[in-house]
From TrEMBL:
Family statement: Belongs to the binding-protein-dependent transport system permease family. FecCD subfamily.
Intracellular or extracellular location(s): Cell membrane
Name listed for the protein in its UniProt record: Iron complex transport system permease protein
Stretch forming the signal peptide: none
Membrane topology of the entry: Multi-pass membrane protein
Pfam families, per database record: FecCD
GO biological process: siderophore-iron import into cell
The keyword Transmembrane belongs to this UniProt entry's keyword annotation: yes
TM region(s), chain numbering: 37-55, 89-107, 128-161, 173-192, 213-240, 260-293, 328-349
GO molecular function: transmembrane transporter activity
GO cellular component: plasma membrane
Keywords associated with the record: Cell membrane, Membrane, Transmembrane, Transmembrane helix, Transport
Length: 356
């Protein structure tokens, strides 16, 4: 007898060659675009850093700048570069990297462009810890960093618990964070009203966000912390990127959703606290970095792009704050807040149109 013939045609699990080629071509284009965007941001950061160092109120010619950096020049330019502009630039780059990655982690994990340390109150929590340390305890240095870290972590834990624990709905988590940020801002004002007038002035300058008092010891502290935290971010990045596609798909691909979300949020809180302890909770840098990076990347968000955008925002904003208005040097936080407010309105309007 001849074998029975199935009425259904045989199917194969192998994809068609054209499909494989299309996927590979798409991935290749994505990698090329990622490399181009990275190179562009590095170039912009280099140009912005040069302008911040050499093109301030005291202009340093390029040959003199090279001589100063190689310790072959001891004139006035050496003091300007080594004690003022170079520390501000380096600290701006390091803290911008921390703020940018923190914003990327928040928005990627929570899948909401409005989810950032600024909007969700984490920056306010870190600010409350630092303000209490400065005004009530008279502390400085590492103690302020630890207090800032405790404040940020305490607020994040309170937000997660109030929103329903590790199984909290993402929308509820964001709204709870906004409410917690408002309460924390009120607590900061209450602490300031009971503080010594001079301590309150120092705290207010810190809360605005400023690079005016950049010191090499602050740079070393932030640099050491980033040297530890950035490799952790690199290890966590693939799982975080998978979360951006949705919890069911991420779980199906083997990602431990709740553990990854909590680890990413915890890492973001640490990054914000480290940066804020050195320059204050500079407004909207975390919030703006990730959307700008996504726009440059054609919708694909990458942590390194957000880090570079954050660094560019800090350096450019500090230059604008310190050099563009004759006779007036503003804190960097004033410029970032002025730039971030329109971005927030644009995102809110865009989401409203999308939901209409």
């Amino acid at each position: 007898m001849s074998p029975a013939v199935s009425p259904f045609p045989r199917t194969t699990s192998l994809p068609a060659p054209a499909t494989v080629a299309t996927v590979r071509a798409g991935r290749s284009r994505s990698r090329r675009r990622t490399r181009r965007v990275t190179a562009l941001l590095v170039l912009v950061l280099a140009l912005a850093s040069f302008a911040r160092i050499a093109l301030g109120k005291y202009v340093v010619a390029l040959p003199d700048l090279v001589a100063v950096l190689t310790h072959d020049y001891s004139g006035p330019a050496a003091y300007i570069v080594w004690d003022i502009t170079l520390p501000r630039t380096v600290l701006g780059i390091l803290t911008g990297i921390a703020f940018g990655i923190a914003g990327h982690l928040f928005q990627r994990v929570l899948r909401n462009p409005l989810a950032s340390p600024d909007i969700m109150g984490v920056s306010s929590g870190a600010g409350l810890g630092a303000v209490a340390a400065i005004t009530l305890g008279g502390l400085s240095g590492v103690a302020v960093t630890l207090s800032s870290l405790a404040g940020g972590f305490g607020l994040m834990v309170a937000v997660v618990l109030a929103a329903g624990g590790t199984r909290a709905n993402i929308g509820k988590l964001v709204l709870t964070g906004v409410a917690a940020g408002a309460l924390t801002a009120a607590a900061i004002n209450a602490v300031l009203t009971r503080a010594d007038i001079y301590a309150a002035q120092d705290a207010m300058q810190w809360l605005t966000g400023s690079l005016n008092a950049a010191r090499w010891v602050d740079i070393a502290q932030v640099g050491i912390c980033l040297a530890i935290l950035l490799p952790v971010c690199a290890v966590l990045a693939p799982a975080v990127d998978t979360l951006g596609a949705g919890d069911p798909l991420a779980a199906g691909l083997g990602v431990h959703v709740r553990a990854t979300r909590l680890a990413a949020l915890g890492l973001a809180v640490v990054l914000v606290a480290v940066a804020a302890s050195a320059v204050g909770p500079v407004a909207f840098v975390s919030f703006m970095a990730a959307p700008i990076a996504r726009g440059l990347g054609g919708g694909a968000g990458h942590a390194r792009h957000a880090a570079l955008v954050g660094a560019v925002l800090m350096v450019v904003s500090d230059y604008v704050a310190a050099e563009t208005i004759p006779g007036l040097a503003l804190p960097v936080g004033v410029v970032t807040a002025a730039a971030g407010a329109p971005v927030l309105l644009w995102l809110l309007i865009g989401r409203g149109k999308a939901e209409a």
